[in-house]
Design goal:
The protein is an all-alpha fold. It has six helices and no strands. Helix 3 crosses helix 5. The chain starts with 7 loop residues before the first helix and ends with a helix.
Length: about 100
C-alpha cells in the first residue's frame, strides 16, 4: 500500500465513497468532488485496464478509448506491478455479474 497517499483526508474520502449506495449517488458525489475531466480520466483508465485484461493491443485500445500510449502503458504497469486493485475489482464485478444471471 502506498504510504504517500495514506492520511486522514484520504481515509475520509474513501469512507465517503464506501457510503455511496447506487450509481446515481456516485454520479451526484463525484460530480461535486471531481471535475468532468478528472472523472473522464479515471473512467478511461478503468476501461483501458479492462481492455488490457482482454489482451487487446495498444493500438486497439487507443482507437477505442482515445487514451494515449503513455496512459495505456501506465495502466499496464499498474496491472503487472501494482497492488492488484484492478484485478480485485474486476473479479468482484465478474462474480456479481455471475450471481445476477
Amino acid at each position: 500500500m502506498n504510504k504517500k497517499i495514506r492520511n486522514e483526508a484520504t481515509d475520509g474520502l474513501f469512507r465517503a465513497i464506501l457510503n455511496l449506495n447506487s450509481l446515481e449517488e456516485c454520479y451526484t458525489f463525484f460530480e461535486d468532488v471531481c471535475t468532468i475531466n478528472e472523472i473522464q480520466s479515471l473512467s478511461q483508465r478503468f476501461e483501458v485496464a479492462k481492455l488490457l485484461r482482454e489482451k487487446r493491443t495498444y493500438l486497439e485500445i487507443a482507437e477505442q478509448t482515445g487514451a494515449s500510449t503513455a496512459t495505456i502503458s501506465r495502466v499496464n504497469r499498474s496491472l503487472n506491478y501494482g497492488n492488484d486493485g484492478y484485478d480485485m475489482v474486476f473479479r468482484r464485478m465478474e462474480q456479481e455479474d455471475q450471481e445476477n444471471k
